[in-house]
Amino acid sequence: MRAPAPAYAADLNGETIDRARGVLGTSLLDAIDRVGEVALHVRRDALVDALAALRDTPGLEYQQLMEIAGVDYPDRGVERFEVVYCLLSLTRNHRIRVHVQTDDVQPVPSVTGLWPVAGWLEREVYDLYGVLFSGNADLRRILTDYGFRGHPLRKDFPMTGYTEVRYSEEHKRVVYQPVSLTQDFRNFDFQSPWEGAAYVLPGDEKGALPEAKGAPTPLKADDLQKAGAARSPTQAPGAPSQPYGKTAESTAETGVGRNGPQSGPKPADPDVIPGSSAEKTGGQNQ
Questions:
Q1: What would the pLDDT profile of 109-156 be if each residue is shown by its tens digit?
Q2: How far is it, in rounded angstroms, from Cα 95 to Cα 64?
Q3: Can you give the three-state secondary structure of 10-59, one letter per residue?
Q4: Which carries the bigger pLDDT value, residue 140 or residue 271?
Q5: CA gap 161, 157 in Å, rounded
Q6: Is 199 exposed, middle or buried (0-12, 13-18, 19+ CB in 10 A)?
Q7: DSSP characters for the chain?
Q8: Which of 36, 133, 156, 213 is least surrounded by Cβ atoms within 10 Å, i.e. has the fewest?
Q9: How far is 26 from 60, CA to CA, in rounded Å?
Q10: Tell me: the pLDDT tens digits for 61-102?
């Protein structure tokens, strides 16, 4: 895979805009070359003729309609919706977008006569945005459920919707009822807590002390041993310098051991006969 997106001849943008202006004439409202893509804004009533010219004119030849998308700009007030036609030229390896503006009352001319696939794409825009298309023989909802109210991709559509669906044991069927959580608008705090938020989160106090630049230097083996010795508990006063057991100070005392504070002489074992071989050899009863 050479590129994450389909490659096309972006160096043809200037030539495409010049040819489109000469072919479309007054039907073209604006032509924009931005981030390597060409966007042509045309009049709504001249949409079909403009798309036919872009498809059939030599030097343009945008044969395929790839997608029809909708965009909502509620701040505009008038003609808040844009319908975007994405075209592809196979012979020139180039893509353009054609934009028209409308509202929820004035219909956009259907382009099903140019590309039959536009019938399904126009139904999607109608379903999600409420844009009407004149000339579409089957303009019905295609993505939402039966009886769905509203258009879910409009910016003023509540995020929880108007109705909710559940199964009713009383009616033994799926029922629709008004949503219990009304949510016409929602205000989100888009400020990241790591970028100067007013509130303090647990753990923010760790960033108050500045640290030296660069990664911390790893400790050496001597430093680790000294740190372990510093953390070891101190010896209580009066305690013996050597632990109880068979710990010798020299090789001559190996195996002698040291007696504890409660140690005393061993009681005589009646089972051991003094002077016997067991006593001489240090048997298990000694």
A1: 999 999 999 999 999 999 999 999 999 999 999 998 877 888 999 998
A2: 10
A3: HHHHHHHHHHHHHHHHHHEEEEEEECCEEEEEECHHHHHHHHHHHHHCCC
A4: 140
A5: 7
A6: exposed
A7: ---SS----GGGHHHHHHHHHHHHGGGEEEEEEETTEEEEEE-GGGHHHHHHHHHHSTTT---EEEEEEEEE-GGG-SS-EEEEEEEEETTTTEEEEEEEEE-SSSPEEP-TTT-TTHHHHHHHHHHHH---EET-TT---SSSPTT--S-TTSTTS-TT-SEEEEEETTTTEEEEEE-SS--S--------TTS--SS--TTGGGGSS---SSPPPPPPHHHHHHHHHHHSPPPPTT--SS-SBS--SSGGGTTT-B--TT--PPPPPTTSPTTSHHHHHT-TT-
A8: 213
A9: 18
A10: 999 999 999 999 999 888 999 999 999 999 988 999 999 999
Can you say whether the dihedral through the CA atoms of 56, 60, 62, 68 is positive or negative? negative
The residue with greater pLDDT, 188 or 31, is 31
Sign of CA dihedral 279, 280, 284, 286: positive
C-alpha–C-alpha distance, residues 122 and 133, integer Å: 7
- Report the range of poorest mean pLDDT among 2-6, 35-39, 173-177: 2-6
Q: Biggest alpha carbon distance in the chain?
A: 132
Task: Give the predicted TM-score (pTM) of the model.
Answer: 0.59
- Given a contact cutoff of 8 angstroms between Cβ atoms, the answer to whether 35 and 13 are in contact is no
